[in-house]
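Notes to self after the Tuesday call (sharing in case useful).
The group wants a holo model before anyone commits to mutagenesis around the pocket. I volunteered. Ligand is flavin-adenine dinucleotide. Logging inputs and output together so the record is complete.
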Amino acid sequence: MPVEIDARIKEVIQRTYNVKSFRLEISDWLDFKAGQFLQAMLQGDPKLKRYLSISSSPTEKCYIEFTKKLTQSDFSKALDNLKAGDKVNIKYPFGKFILDESAPKVAFLSGGIGITPVRSICKYAVDKNTGVDIALVYSNRSIRDVVFKDDFSAMCKSYPFLRVAHVLCEAEQGFKCTVGQINSGVVKNEIPDYQERKFYLCGPPQMVEAMRKILAEELGLNSEKIVTENFQGY
Ligand SMILES: Cc1cc2nc3c(=O)[nH]c(=O)nc-3n(C[C@H](O)[C@H](O)[C@H](O)COP(=O)(O)OP(=O)(O)OC[C@H]3O[C@@H](n4cnc5c(N)ncnc54)[C@H](O)[C@@H]3O)c2cc1C
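Result:
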């Protein structure tokens, strides 16, 4: 059952030019599964309410973190002004975008801010050393938009079963990536054993639908092997 609590901000982390993470101190720890989301309400105002994936892992016990792309909305502006000690009302956990621990091999296709639950799941797998084989294809407009870049590099170093392939619309000198967008060719190239994997897709609804079509219609994957999370609102 989801629980509602008033939490205090412990730390705010600037991730990219328009993405910030907010770490909340949780006095009464409520367990959640990596990949789940919460509802955050600011200033006690029901108009300032959004669903946000939890970007921390349940193994990171000192806090719960969410990570928001800051837009021009009233919610984003109010969030952007928050600092350590400020209050946020949260309700959690929600959602079924969670790792199927019976699947030995999984793949994530993610775009932009859609990386937040993926970061949670990967961190969980790394910290627990689950042995699950993870292939992530992460697409962004440019290198400036890549969230958790160093975090993923560190995870790849400490967990040999995690591979991350970047896809950027704009090439970046010295940065290994495919230039363009995720398509069936990119999936085949970056994940040659794609038929053996369960796929998790996360991002704006249009992107998720495009990815689902590529997997189901072009690559012939069964719908039971595809799990999606739509970030409604983008
Ligand atoms: C399960 C889930 C997890 C998400 N996780 C993240 C995350 O980790 N990081 C992140 O940045 N964003 C996440 N989002 C998207 C987030 O909830 C906001 O919709 C988005 O950030 C845009 O809000 P805004 O205030 O910036 O812009 P706004 O301009 O206020 O929002 C854009 C429009 O979308 C509408 N809208 C907002 N939420 C919804 C909704 N749930 N369903 C339908 N319409 C809606 C608003 O009313 C508005 O018209 C998630 C969404 C969902 C459903």
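Two things stood out.
The longest strand covers residues 3-16.
Residues 37, 50-53, 66-69, 71, 73, 75-76, 113, 116, 229, 231-234 surround flavin-adenine dinucleotide (CB under 6 Å).
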